[in-house]
C-alpha cells in the first residue's frame, strides 16, 4: 500500500451525502439498499415481532397461572404456543441477528456496503412479507396450531384440514429464502470487502461468528425448507412423503426438521457469543483472551452442531446404538462452549471490569447460559432425556438457551451499539433497572420449570388439574414472566426516550477497539470517506490516529480513498490478508428487490388460496422484477 | 454497590439450585417405583452433584473475575489466560463429559432389555385416550394398565393416527407411539401403587387430557383382576339398567364403543366393558362419578372440547338409564 498516508480528521464533504443519499419519501423507503437502513429496519421489525411473541407468552402464562383456568380455549392456546415459538425463532431471533450483522459487519471490516446491496434489500423484504403473511392467518381465524415443529401426521390434511398449517408451511419455506440469501451476502462481504490489512487473524470475533452463522445457514436451512415444502406438497397436492398410511414416513419429517433445528440453536448462539466476545473485552479494558481459541471454537461448533440433531428424537424408538452416537456428539459440543466461557472469564480476570448496562447484560448472559449449558449436557445423556424430553424441564432448558443465551446478548448488543446506530446514548440507570428486572424475572419464570418437569408436567398442555401439585410453581413462573416482560418494556421505554431526549453519542462512547467506532455516530451513508488501513486486531486501540488509505490510479486501489466515495464505489480485496484487487460500483437505490419479493409473496398467497390466477400473476410479477434486476446489473 | 448486587445475584442463583435439590426429594420422576426410573433417578443425582459443583465454581469465577479489578488491584495474576482456557475450558469439561459418556452407555445398556418372562401389553395411542390390550387374555380396556409387581413388563406402543408419547414418570422414561412402527417400552414395577401417566407428545386439541394410570399390584391381585377383566359383564339386573342397555345399542353409542358380550362393537371410542372400574372419564378429564357421567353424556364438548365424543340431546330418564347401565359394567 504505497498510497497509504495518515490523514487528519477528514473535512466534511457535503456533496458526498448527495451522492449517497436515498430518494426522499415513500419511494426512498422501498428503494433503499443502504445496509445501515436495512439493518436498522431489520432490528426494529424484529423487536415488534419479539413484543408480539412475548405478549402471547404472557397470555399463555395467565392461562397456566393456576389449574383449570379458562382464559383461553384449547384451540386458542394451541395457536398461541405455535405462533409464539415460530415467531421467536423465525421472525425474531434469526432475523434480528442478521439485522445486527447487516448493520455492523460492513463497518467492522471497513467497507461502504454489503457485497450485494440489492440482494440485501431483497432479503429484508422477503422476511417482512413472510412475517405479514404468517400473521395474516389471524385475520382469517386460521392461525397455525400444530406446534412450531409441525410434526406430521398431526399436520397432515387428515388431522389439520384448515388453512392453519399452510400458513406455517408456506411461511417457513418463504422466510428461508431471506435467511439463505442473507448468509451468502455475509460470506462474500467478509471474504472480499475487508479493509486492506485486515487479515483473517485480525478479523473481529463477531465477524468470525457471522461467517460461521452464514455457512451454517447455507447447509441447514435447505433441510427445513425441504421439510416444510414436502409437507405443503402433501397438504396441497396430495403427495404422501410423510403420510404413513400411504407409505410415507413421519420420522423422515423429524429428521429433516431437526437437521436444521439443532444447528439452528447454534446458528442463534454463535453470533450471540460473537457479540459477547466484542463487549466483554471493551468493558474489561483489554483484548479478548485466547482469540484463536475462541475463533476455533466457533468454527468447531459450526461443524459439530450438524451431528447432534437426533437428540431431539431420543424417544422415537430408534436403536440404542444409533442414539448413543448422537448422545456422545451432543456431549462433545459442550467443549467449544466451555473454551469460550473460560476465554471470557480470563479476559475479565486480567482486566478491569466497568459495570455498564451492556456489560451487565453480558454478565447476566454468562450466569444464565452456564445453567442452560449444564442442562444441555444433561439432556444429551440418553436415559435422562427419556424422562426429561417433552416435559417442562426442556421448556426451562430451551428458554435458558434461546432466551437467556441469545436474548441477553441481543440486549447487551442493543445497549452497546444503539448509540452508534442512532447517535444518541441510552439512559444507564434505566438500563440497569431494566437488566435487573429482566434477570430476576427470567430466573423466576424459567428456573421453576425444571422442577415442574420432574413433577411430570408435559409440554404444550393448555390446562392441568389441581391435584398434581403444579399450581404454586406455575404461579411463580407466571409472576416471573410478567417481571421479565416489564424489564423488556423498560428497555423499549429507554429506546423511545433516547430517541427524543438522549444525550448525543460521541464517535466511540465505550472506548472500543473496532472500526465501526471510527466513524461518526450515526455513521454517514458511505461509512468511511477513505477506507482505514488495518495493522492490528484492535485498530482503534493500537493505531492512533487511525491511518486511512488514499486512492491509487488503478482499479485495484481507486476506491480506497475519498475518490472512491465520490464515485459511489467500494474496494474489493482478497486473499487471507485482504490485498487490493479491484473496485466495486455500489448500485443506485432501486425498487426492483421489493418488486421481486412482493411477486413471490403474491405467488405464495396464490398457493395458499389454491388460486391459479393469483399464483401465476405473482410469479409473473416476481419474474419481471428479477429479469429487470438482472438486466440492469450489466449497467454497473 | 455493584459488587453487592452481584453477590446478591449469585446467592439467589445458588439458592435456586439448592431449592431444586430440596424440592426434588418428593417429586414424581425422582420418586421412582420402577426399575427404569430408579436407574435414571440415580443418574440424575450424579449429574446434579456434578452440575451444582460446576455451577458454583464457574459462577464463582465469573463473579470474582468481574469484581476483582474493582479492588484497585492491578491486573496481575498467577493464572494465565491460556491456563484458564486449557484447564477450565478444555481439560475439566472433557473429564466430566467422559464420566457422563460412560454412565450414559452403562445406564442405557442396563435399561429396556428384552426378557423371556415379560408380560406383554399392547397399547395404542388414540385421540385422546389409550387403548389397552393384553394379548392371549381377552382383556381390552382403556386408560388403565394393571401390572404385576416384580415381573418384567413389555409394552408394545403403536398408533394409527398421530404421534403420542407414553410417559409414567414414576416408572420409566418416555416412548413415542409412531404410526407405521411398533415401539417397545420395558420396565419392572417395583412397588404396588397407582402411577399417573400422561401423553407427552403434542397430539392435537386435547393433548392436555390424555392421562392414564398404571396400577401395580401383587401378582395374586393382578391375576384376580385379569380373570375378572376377561369376563364379559353380567346381564342387567334392573329395569332401568336393561333400558339403558337398549338405549346404548340404539343410540349412536354402540357405533363407537364396544361392550363385550353385547351388540355394541364400535371401534372409535374406548371399550367400555369394565367401565365402572375406571377412575376417570375422558382419559382424566373428569372423575368417574354418576353425576359426571351424566354430564359427560350430555355435554362432553364442554368438559373436553374437541373430543370425538359428541354432546347427546337426551331426556333426563334416558340419561339416568344410560348412567345406570354404564355403572353396571365391571
What does this structure look like?
The complex is a heterodimer of chains A (636) and B (330). The radius of gyration of chain A is 25 Å and the shape is globular. With 636 residues, chain A is mainly α. Chain A contains 20 helices and two strands. Chain A has helices at 14-20, 25-31, 35-64, 74-108, 117-135, 164-192, 205-237, 250-284, 291-304, 320-332, 334-349, 357-380, 382-388, 392-422, 428-454, 471-501, 539-542, 562-566, 592-609, 612-633, and strands at 569-574, 579-585. Chain A has a two-stranded antiparallel ribbon with strand order 1-2. By secondary structure, chain B is of the alpha+beta class. Chain B is 43% helix and 18% strand. Chain B has helices spanning 2-24, 35-68, 81-110, 219-230, 239-250, 253-256, 290-303, 316-327; strands spanning 119-125, 130-134, 139-142, 144-148, 152-159, 164-167, 175-177, 183-188, 193-199, 212-217, 280-281, 286-287. In chain B, the strands form three sheets. Chain B has a five-stranded mixed sheet with strand order 3-2-1-5-8. A five-stranded mixed sheet of chain B has the order 4-10-9-6-7, covered by helices on one side. Chain B has a two-stranded antiparallel ribbon with strand order 11-12. In chain B, helix 1 (2-24) runs antiparallel to helix 2 and helix 5 crosses helix 8 (316-327). Mean pLDDT of chain B is 89; it is low at 20-27.
Count of helical stretches of chain A: 20
- Measured by DSSP, the beta-strand proportion of chain A falls in under 5%
Gyration radius over CA of chain A: 25 Å
State mean pLDDT of chain A (0 to 100 scale). 94
Percent range of helical residues of chain A: 55-70%
- Overall average residue pLDDT of chain B: 89
Task: Extract low-pLDDT stretches of chain B.
Answer: 20-27
SSE topology string of chain A = HHHHHHHHHHHHHHHHHHEEHH
Query: Describe the biggest sheet of chain A?
Result: 2 strands, antiparallel
Low-pLDDT runs of 5+ residues of chain A are 1-11
Q: Find the biggest chain interface.
A: A-B, 88 and 95 residues
What is the first-to-last residue Cα distance of chain B? 70 Å
Assign a percent range to the helix content of chain B: 40-55%
Rounded to the nearest angstrom, the distance between the terminal CA atoms of chain A is 26 Å
Structural class based on helices, strands and sheet pairing of chain A: mainly alpha
- H/E series of chain B, N to C? HHHEEEEEEEEEEHHHEEHH
Amino acid at each position: 500500500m504505497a498510497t497509504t498516508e495518515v490523514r487528519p480528521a477528514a473535512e466534511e464533504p457535503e456533496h458526498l451525502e448527495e451522492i449517497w443519499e436515498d430518494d426522499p419519501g415513500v419511494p426512498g423507503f422501498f428503494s433503499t439498499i443502504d445496509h445501515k437502513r436495512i439493518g436498522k429496519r431489520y432490528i426494529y421489525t424484529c423487536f415488534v415481532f419479539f413484543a408480539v411473541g412475548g405478549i402471547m407468552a404472557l397470555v399463555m402464562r395467565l392461562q397456566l397461572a393456576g389449574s383449570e383456568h379458562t382464559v383461553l380455549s384449547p384451540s386458542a392456546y394451541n395457536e398461541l404456543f405455535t405462533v409464539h415459538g415460530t415467531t421467536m425463532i423465525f421472525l425474531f431471533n434469526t432475523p434480528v441477528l442478521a439485522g445486527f450483522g447487516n448493520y455492523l459487519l460492513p463497518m467492522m471490516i471497513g467497507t461502504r456496503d454489503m457485497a450485494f446491496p440489492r440482494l440485501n434489500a431483497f432479503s429484508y423484504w422477503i422476511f417482512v412479507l413472510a412475517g405479514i403473511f404468517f400473521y395474516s392467518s389471524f385475520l382469517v381465524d386460521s392461525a397455525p396450531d400444530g406446534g412450531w415443529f409441525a410434526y406430521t401426521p398431526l399436520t397432515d390434511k387428515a388431522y389439520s384440514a384448515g388453512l392453519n398449517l399452510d400458513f406455517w408451511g408456506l411461511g417457513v419455506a418463504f422466510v428461508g429464502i431471506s435467511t439463505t440469501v442473507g448468509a451468502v451476502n455475509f460470506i462474500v462481504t467478509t471474504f472480499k470487502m475487508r479493509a486492506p490489512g485486515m487479515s483473517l487473524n485480525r478479523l473481529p470475533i463477531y465477524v468470525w461468528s457471522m461467517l460461521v452463522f452464514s455457512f451454517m445457514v447455507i447447509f441447514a436451512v435447505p433441510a427445513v425448507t425441504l421439510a416444510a415444502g414436502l409437507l405443503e406438497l402433501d397438504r396441497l397436492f396430495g403427495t404422501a412423503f410423510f403420510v404413513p398410511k400411504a407409505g410415507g414416513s413421519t420420522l423422515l419429517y423429524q429428521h429433516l426438521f431437526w437437521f436444521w433445528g439443532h444447528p439452528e440453536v447454534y446458528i442463534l448462539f454463535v453470533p450471540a457469543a460473537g457479540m459477547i466476545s466484542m463487549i466483554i473485552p471493551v468493558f474489561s479494558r483489554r483484548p479478548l483472551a485466547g482469540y484463536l481459541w475462541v475463533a476455533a471454537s466457533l468454527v468447531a461448533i459450526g461443524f459439530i452442531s450438524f451431528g447432534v440433531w437426533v437428540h431431539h428424537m431420543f424417544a422415537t424408538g430408534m436403536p440404542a446404538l444409533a442414539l448413543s452416537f448422537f448422545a456422545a456428539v451432543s456431549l462433545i459440543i459442550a467443549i467449544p462452549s466451555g473454551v469460550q466461557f473460560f476465554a471470557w472469564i480470563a479476559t475479565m480476570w486480567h482486566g478491569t471490569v466497568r459495570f455498564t448496562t451492556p456489560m451487565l447484560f453480558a454478565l447476566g448472559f454468562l450466569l444464565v447460559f452456564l445453567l442452560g449449558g449444564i442442562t444441555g449436557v444433561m439432556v444429551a445423556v440418553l436415559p435422562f432425556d427419556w424422562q426429561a424430553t417433552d416435559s417442562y424441564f426442556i421448556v426451562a432448558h430451551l428458554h435458558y438457551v434461546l432466551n437467556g443465551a441469545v436474548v441477553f446478548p441481543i440486549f447487551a448488543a442493543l445497549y452497546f451499539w444503539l448509540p452508534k446506530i442512532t447517535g444518541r446514548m441510552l439512559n444507564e440507570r434505566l438500563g440497569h433497572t431494566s437488566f435487573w428486572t429482566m434477570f430476576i424475572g427470567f430466573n423466576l419464570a424459567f428456573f421453576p420449570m425444571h422442577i415442574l418437569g420432574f413433577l411430570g408436567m408435559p409440554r404444550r398442555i393448555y390446562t392441568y388439574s389441581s391435584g398434581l401439585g403444579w399450581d404454586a410453581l406455575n404461579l411463580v413462573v407466571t409472576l416471573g414472566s410478567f417481571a421479565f416482560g416489564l424489564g423488556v418494556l423498560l428497555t423499549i421505554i429507554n429506546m423511545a426516550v433516547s430517541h427524543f431526549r438522549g444525550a448525543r453519542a460521541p464517535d466511540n462512547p465505550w472506548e472500543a477497539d473496532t472500526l465501526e467506532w471510527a466513524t461518526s455516530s450515526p455513521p454517514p451513508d458511505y461509512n468511511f470517506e477513505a477506507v482505514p488501513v488495518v495493522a492490528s486486531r484492535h485498530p482503534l486501540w493500537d493505531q492512533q490516529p487511525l491511518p486511512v488509505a488514499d486512492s491509487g490510479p488503478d482499479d485495484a486501489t481507486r476506491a480506497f480513498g475519498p475518490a472512491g466515495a465520490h464515485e459511489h464505489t467500494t474496494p474489493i480485496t482478497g486473499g487471507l490478508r485482504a490485498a487490493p484487487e479491484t473496485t466495486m460500483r455500489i448500485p443506485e437505490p432501486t425498487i426492483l428487490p421489493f418488486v421481486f419479493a412482493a411477486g413471490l409473496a403474491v405467488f405464495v398467497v396464490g398457493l395458499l388460496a389454491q388460486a391459479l390466477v393469483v399464483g401465476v400473476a405473482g410469479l409473473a410479477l416476481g419474474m419481471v422484477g428479477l429479469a429487470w434486476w438482472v438486466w440492469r446489473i450489466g449497467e454497473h | 454497590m455493584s459488587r453487592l448486587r452481584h453477590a446478591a445475584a449469585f446467592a439467589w442463583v445458588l439458592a435456586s439450585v439448592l431449592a431444586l435439590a430440596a424440592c426434588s426429594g418428593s417429586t414424581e420422576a425422582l420418586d421412582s417405583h420402577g426399575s427404569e426410573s430408579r436407574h435414571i433417578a440415580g443418574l440424575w443425582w450424579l449429574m446434579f452433584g456434578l452440575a451444582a459443583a460446576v455451577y458454583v465454581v464457574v459462577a464463582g469465577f465469573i463473579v470474582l473475575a468481574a469484581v476483582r479489578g474493582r479492588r484497585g488491584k492491578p491486573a496481575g495474576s498467577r493464572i494465565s489466560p491460556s491456563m484458564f482456557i486449557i484447564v477450565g475450558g478444555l481439560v475439566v469439561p472433557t473429564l466430566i463429559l467422559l464420566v457422563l459418556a460412560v454412565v450414559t452407555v452403562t445406564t442405557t445398556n442396563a435399561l429396556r432389555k428384552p426378557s423371556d418372562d415379560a408380560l406383554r401389553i399392547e397399547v395404542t395411542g388414540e385421540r385422546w385416550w389409550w387403548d389397552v390390550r393384553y394379548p392371549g387374555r381377552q382383556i381390552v380396556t382403556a386408560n388403565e394398565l394393571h401390572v404385576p409387581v416384580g415381573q418384567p413388563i413389555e409394552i408394545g406402543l403403536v398408533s394409527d393416527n398421530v404421534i403420542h408419547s407414553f410417559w409414567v414418570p414414576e416408572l420409566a422414561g418416555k416412548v413415542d407411539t409412531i404410526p407405521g412402527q411398533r415401539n417397545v417400552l420395558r420396565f419392572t414395577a417395583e412397588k404396588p401403587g397407582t402411577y399417573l401417566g400422561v401423553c407427552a407428545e403434542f397430539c392435537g386439541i386435547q393433548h392436555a387430557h390424555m392421562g392414564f394410570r398404571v396400577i401395580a399390584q401383587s401378582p395374586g391381585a393382578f391375576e384376580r383382576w385379569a380373570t375378572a377383566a376377561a369376563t364379559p359383564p353380567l346381564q342387567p339386573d334392573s329395569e332401568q339398567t336393561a333400558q339403558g342397555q337398549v338405549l346404548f345399542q340404539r343410540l349412536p353409542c354402540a357405533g363407537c364403543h364396544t361392550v363385550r358380550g353385547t351388540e355394541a362393537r364400535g371401534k372409535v371410542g374406548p371399550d367400555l366393558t369394565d367401565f365402572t372400574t375406571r377412575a376417570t372419564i375422558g382419559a382424566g378429564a373428569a372423575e368417574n362419578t354418576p353425576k359426571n357421567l351424566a354430564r359427560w353424556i350430555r355435554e362432553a364438548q364442554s368438559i373436553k372440547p374437541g373430543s370425538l365424543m359428541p354432546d347427546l340431546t337426551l331426556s333426563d330418564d334416558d340419561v339416568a338409564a344410560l348412567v345406570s347401565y354404564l355403572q353396571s359394567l365391571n
